[in-house]
Design brief:
152 residues, two-stranded parallel sheet
């Protein structure tokens, strides 16, 4: 596979999507556990938005690898390793993304095992992990403008 330019449109769309999903989760009553758990809409919103934010950061990671480096990756955990090998992420960020890959797989394939309590805890305490990856992608993209196709 030959490296090409990374689509600026895909970058903007996926980063904006992840940020919007995190903002929606943060708008839930995270300071009041009882209120969060009492309304099932909070639980479903947290689940859907977290899953979509994770999909967005993995989709963008794959796009960066394929277009920017000509590297195909299979599993989501492999995306983290490949982004580290390509110097897009540092080792700590790659480890965070690897953990997020496992969580994404739980949300998608073992959804029946993810409790409302767990979704509350993740929403309240762990969103910064997703935000860390968004910041890392932005940092790398800003440092490599020559790799981005800015045309629509």
């Amino acid at each position: 596979m030959m490296p090409m330019l990374i689509s600026g449109r895909v970058v903007t769309d996926r980063l904006d999507w992840a940020v919007r999903m995190m903002a929606t989760i943060r708008s839930l009553p995270l300071d009041d556990r009882e209120a969060f758990l009492a309304d099932s809409r909070n639980i479903w919103t947290a689940d859907a938005c977290l899953r979509r934010a994770l999909e967005a950061i993995f989709d963008l990671g794959r796009h960066i690898l394929v277009k920017g480096f000509g590297v195909a990756s299979g599993e989501y955990k492999e995306v983290a390793s490949a982004l580290y090998r390509c110097d897009v992420l540092n080792s700590g960020e790659a480890e965070t993304l690897r953990v997020l890959a496992g969580y994404r797989n739980r949300l998608v394939h073992f959804y029946h095992e993810v409790s409302a309590e767990e979704l509350y805890s993740v929403s309240k305490n762990d969103l910064q992990d997703v935000e860390q990856i968004v910041v890392a992608y932005r940092r790398w993209l800003q440092a490599h403008p020559e790799k981005i196709d800015k045309t629509l």
